[in-house]
Protein: non-specific serine/threonine protein kinase
Amino acid sequence: MSDTPSDPMVGRLIDGRYQVRSRIARGGMATVYLATDLRLERRVAIKIMHGHLADDNTFKARFVQEARSAARLAHPNVVNVYDQGQDADMAYLVMEYLPGITLRDLLKDYGRLTSEQTMDILEAVLAGLAAAHKAGIVHRDLKPENVLLADDGRIKIGDFGLARAVNNNTATGQALLGTIAYLSPELVTRGIADARSDIYALGIMTYEMLTGEQPYVGEAPMQIAYQHANDTVPMPSVRIPTIPHELDELVLWATARDPEQRPRDARVMLDQLLDLDRLVRPAPPATGQSATMVMPGGVAAAVADADTQILGGAPLVPAVAGVGTAVATPAALLTDKSRKRKNRGYFLFALVLLLAALAGGTGWFFGTGPGSDVPIPTLISASPEDATAQLTELGLEAALSTEFSGTIPAGLVSSTNPDPGIRVAKGSTVTLRVSQGPQPIVLPALAGLTADAATATVTELKAGIGATDSIFDDTVESGLVISATRELDGADVSQGGDYFEGMNVNLVLSLGSVPDVSGESVDDATAILGDRGLLVTTGDEVFSDSIAEGDVVSAAAVNEGPVRAGDTYALTTSLGPKPVTVPNIVGLPWNEGKQVLTDLGFKLSYNLGADAIAPLLSVASTAPAAGTDAPKNSTVTLKPTNPFG
Structure:
């Protein structure tokens, strides 16, 4: 937390009651500030919706939903909501202020947690989530950022902004909500969430706490979503061999792709975690002495007579004679809690061992004995022969089937049933699905369709749109498909053709024809072509009998090939009509000389007199004189000879 004087909200009084002190955090929907409730004289956290979302009824409704959802919960492991309201154009939410860090901060500092620390945090989160599920609320955005570790040792779930009431078919609406790294397969594929979707997110968080990494990574969100929908979360011990087998089973149970195979709600998983805790925790040391512990303020019976403490503030630890006062960090508190649990004694440990022995071969988790079960190995991309051999070595039977696959080459194993990582009894049959390559499809004619229609047609066939190009075309209307090719091999499918599911189709769209700017001024032509996204440069100058001097005679693309937006057009401008050289017709018969000038496009001017006989005359001179350049259509004056000397 840091002061942000430049933030206009800092120092503002909201609704005449909440004095904003500093900014704590900023998220996608709102910003959280530290504020003082002047009426009750206590520090609170106030969440204020971003101004640009204030007019969006959907976001506003979701914001109010957070207040209603959280207000229905009263549990030590859920952040309390005190108030919700509207101040002018601001929607706000007032919550309990918890100084401390988030689980994400803890993971950044320590990389990964011990098994005991993981179980401590998971127990607290499950306890709060169980209360939410009992109240009919699904959180839908569980992630380390929403698990708060207070300075006084409390662990709480916050941010119920995406929460909704539980039913058998709770949907997300038009878009998937929640962080992609923690989305359950049913949210990715069908947009449906219930309490078991929260369990899946907790399973991913547990894997991350134990290993320090998320199980699925990718360069694009859709790559991660695809893995959630199609892959099985690996056992944490594959990455960290020292992780207990029981925690492997817990993660696999919580992250089963089929929601029916997961705990039905947080209470079921919490009960199993408490049983598991007794098995996983190491036995306490056989000594009569207890390690010295730093107790968080307000929780130990030994400090019942200490001074009154302010909840939510810095922990106040009373001094004991000979012992200095210490402030425990969240990591130290977790370690302390783990140490205390180790001192439960041999009696409870022996009792658990006895109960485990009585359970015998039925196991304690999925109803099967871990000692007699084997995990199905990852056989993807193996040949059927190699995959069969691996299963045989594990005491499993192999059966073959086929399926189409856009990612695994034909002839190799593309998937198994059950999925890799699932533990099954020896002698069980594992089905090896062998890839037949991509599934064939037939594309219809795409030329002449709009871009949206072509995209819909292709995606309905489970293919995709690859590269899209747009060019000017004199024959195809703007916005329509000119041609289509298969990205796989460049084959033309403009009029339809065979293809494969999952492959991309490249489209070329029309920008319409390039405007004709002949006869326009250079400025007007530049503006017309610029409006179509074309650049303009000055080209040649030519004589023109029909285009006025300085105007555009023609325009042409500088580069060869299809013309695209951003290409350059060169303008050819007019020099006006081409000058004509006056010929030497002096001495020619009058009528013959006239005809020569007329054929060259000159106008004639002369005066023969009333008594002149033209056939008897010849040309005496011209003005302009012979050899002079004169504009076409200009006038040449003729002077005849005197036939009588």
Observations:
- The CA atoms of residues 101 and 467 lie 45 Å apart.
- The first strand starts at residue 13 and ends at 14.
- Residues 1-97 form a domain with the Phosphorylase Kinase; domain 1 fold (CATH 3.30.200.20).
